[in-house]
Design brief:
Blueprint: H1 3-14, E1 19-21, E2 26-29, E3 41-45, E4 50-54, H2 61-67, E5 81-87, E6 90-96, E7 103-107, E8 128-132, H3 135-143, E9 149-150, E10 171-175, H4 180-193
Parallel strand pairs: 8-9, 8-10
Antiparallel strand pairs: 1-2, 2-3, 3-4, 5-6, 6-7
């Protein structure tokens, strides 16, 4: 469990808001930003901190934190730093900038392998593999109950470089980012997987 998630759950209780666990390190709560009485706030332990989503009014994360006496920075672990290990000494580090919005990627050397999340079922023993864009999306898909999830390094631009041979013979479900670059990346992946996987 991340520090930010634990801090957020404690702050909910200390301020009189209900929280109900629903799976491993996730649940529903009353939204403190609009003082909701319904359990309309999704809370989950993400790879960089606590993930919060108000389903009633789409309250901003900063407002949710402020209502609990927290700052936006309090919603992140390790000052917004996340390290993703691709194996063989290849790591991708993402850090949140001071404004709490932008993330930059430090990637050396160039990574061409698929990402292996420690909570994901191994690609080698899985018949179905979910392919998403970005390490944060892997974490989110695993929280939603997917079994085997992976991604490639470099975002939409990295589709052409990634080694997809571990996906041979598998059934692949591609979940595209909801933007033009994400949709183009999904089309390119489908083309590359043709004849190799379903």
């Amino acid at each position: 469990m991340g520090v930010a998630y634990e801090r957020f759950i404690e702050a909910l209780g200390a301020n009189g808001f209900r929280f109900q666990a629903n799976g491993t390190y996730r649940g529903r709560a009353q939204c403190p930003a609009h003082n909701g009485s319904d359990m309309n706030l999704s809370v989950a332990d993400g790879d960089q901190g606590v993930l919060v989503k108000c389903h009633s009014y789409d309250c901003p994360s900063e407002d949710i934190a402020k209502a609990l006496g927290l700052t936006l920075e309090d919603l992140f672990d390790q000052d917004g730093r996340a390290v993703y290990d691709y194996g063989n000494g290849h790591r991708v580090t993402r850090r949140r900038t001071r404004d709490g919005k932008k993330i930059y990627q430090d990637q050396k050397p160039v990574v061409t392998t698929l990402y292996r999340h420690p909570r994901s079922a191994p690609i080698e023993t899985s018949d179905v593999v979910v392919l998403v864009e970005g390490e944060k999306c892997v974490d989110a898909a695993l929280h939603l109950g997917e079994s085997c999830v992976t991604t490639w390094p470099g975002g939409a631009a990295g589709v052409a470089q990634v080694d997809i041979t571990p996906l041979a013979g598998k059934t692949i479900r591609i979940i595209a980012d909801n933007d033009e670059a994400g949709k183009r990346a999904a089309v390119r992946l489908s083309a590359r997987l043709a004849g190799l996987a379903t």
